[in-house]
Amino acid sequence: MAHRRPARVLMSILQQQLFLHAASPATVCRRAFMQQEYRRPGQPKVDKFPWEKINFDFNKGVEGIKKHFMLMKNEFFERFVGPQGKPLVEHILEQNQVIWEFRGPESLEQWMVSSDQEIGGQSEVHLTLGRNNDTCLLYGTLSSATPRDGETRYSGYCTLRSKQQLASLDRKKHHDWSCFNMLHLRVRGDGRPWMINIQPESYFSHQKDDIYSYFLYTRGGPYWQEVKIPFSKFFITHKGRVQDSQHYLMLDKVNTIGFTLGDNVDGPFQLEIDFIGVCKDYAHTEEFAYESYAKN
User: Is the pTM of this model over 0.90?
Assistant: First the structure.
């Protein structure tokens, strides 16, 4: 009987460990590490090899080689002048810089529009030049009617977003705004609130949907308004949800900027933009407006 007690004790411990392992709740990560592109509910999944998506065209290839060699040439000689082809003194002492301005049809090629029609919604958005061809006019109709696919619960948004700039060999070209502390806009809206979205370069795959956002309140009417928003006011969101862990926006590698309308008010809208720039205000000394966790 004495030699059976250790065996019974071991069996009881083993059973307790198995029970605790089966009863413990499954842990869910705060952000998914393996993220895929959005696929509209009901659409069939398209499985293609990477080489099947490439369009092999000899003339297009020759033009691409010429284009990339010219970009490489410009990048090589700009380094001898200074950052972004400017003298170093001008780069350090510069207090205002216009990033985007709309002065012709070619300026609209740097932007793209989208709406909830991508998920089956009914909103419409259009982008065109203003009356004197020196402004950008974003207009359309917002509809919060959800698509009848049985899965989508929310709808009703329209967005304007700048395209990712590319350097030679299709490398990402970033905006360096580290010398500035404010976003400067000259807009004319219809009284609707917009959301300004700035997307910096992400260093990890699970951060590719992280966007820094802040509000733009248009007052409506025929008069222009100049808006200055400190970069310290922008808060981080992930797929439209405000995150608990907040940290300031890194301005040395900014990819895109965008405007989103989703105030759940059905009807027409319009937003006219003159220019988008950055500026340096020495009176603003705030580094970050929100509470952040202490990091070890």
Answer: no
